[in-house]
Amino acid sequence: MNHRNHGDHRNHPGDHRDLAIVTVRHSLTAHNTAGYITGRLDVPLSAQGRDAARRFVQGAGLLSADVVLASPARRAVETAVLLTGLREEDIICDERCHERHYGVLQGLSREETAAYTGMITYLEAGGVRHSLDPPGGETLPELRARARTFLDTVQALPARSILIASHGTFLQQLHGLLLQHSMHATLARHVHSLQIDEFTLRSGGRPEHRQVHPGLDAEPLW
Question: pTM for the complete prediction?
Fold first, then answer.
């Protein structure tokens, strides 16, 4: 694990530590700007995406945390490297924070997904129609459960600060769990590329949320 240790952060009986969780959605890819569903396809950052990450660092400085986690997708790992200055081998890849698997919809444009409309149940939230059960993919309740398992693991780590580089749909549900929102309410909160959020979890209190960077508006919303 990558630990930028500042003493021993392991939990002990009676340790009521605050925990800071910073989430980062990966920067732009060619799929993002063109409006394709990526899901588990391993698409790298585009030149535009890399430039945007570098500009953030130039203006705000590198991000740091005791533990840095990332989805194994190249776009997430590369974003974590650019924003933290760490080597790729110092970042912990965790399959549980990978993007949602969209089954047969992966790699398709908005127009191409129309052929599958009759096979999918949709839920409207925030002006966007969200697929509940894409053929061959992960259902929305399954995604929510995976986000819960991942969050439980993250909260048990012996650290006071954790950075997570992941994906839009996964982070949408992770944010919902952190903010104690229902699944439907969570769907109305879009997570933009390169959006950075900080959640502070305090013992016995509600989580505090602060948006560090609003992200980019260069991608179409479905």
Answer: 0.91
